[in-house]
Design brief:
By secondary structure, the chain is of the alpha+beta class. 39% of the residues lie in helices and 16% in strands. The longest helix is centred in the first third of the chain and has 11 residues, at 20-30.
Length: 147
């Protein structure tokens, strides 16, 4: 089975100049966890996810420390959340974006998702424009429907 048979074709996207708060509101409204970021020509330049927001608002030592306890709503985090109005998507988006094309097999997409630890992959046309998104849920649903 190919990606084009299961991908979501109606894809919303963000612009790099959108504020992080506006982008987050859109994620909440759509009940999704990430969107592609495109430039004025329609080329993909990044991915904006809830994970990127968490990385921005939590202290930078999170990755070094690992598991630890936080006090309830520490002041520093509240200030960072309030600052999301001033931060642009381009400042916190992931710039290295893995993409696939419409003819990529679902098994290959699953391999990429598992080895790269990602939940969704933009589907790109031959011209380089986003024509769809495929999520882990799309892959699992499609693979289980086949059997």
């Amino acid at each position: 089975m190919k990606v084009k048979e299961t991908m979501t074709k109606d894809v919303r996207s963000l612009f790099p100049q959108t504020t992080a708060r506006e982008a987050l509101k859109l994620l909440f409204q759509m009940q999704i966890s990430g969107l592609p970021v495109i430039d004025e020509k329609g080329n993909i330049v990044g991915m904006f996810t809830e994970k990127d927001v968490l990385r921005k608002i939590l202290p930078s030592y999170v990755e070094r420390v690992g598991r630890f306890s936080y006090e309830e709503n520490p002041k520093g985090i509240k200030q960072k959340v309030a600052g999301l109005d001033k931060i642009k998507v381009q400042e916190i988006m992931r710039k290295e974006v893995l993409t696939v094309n419409e003819d990529t097999t679902l098994c290959e997409v699953a391999r990429i998702m598992l080895t790269e630890n990602i939940r969704r992959i933009p589907v790109i046309s031959k011209e380089g424009f986003v024509v769809g998104m495929v999520s882990r849920g799309d892959v699992v649903l499609a693979l289980t429907k086949e059997t």
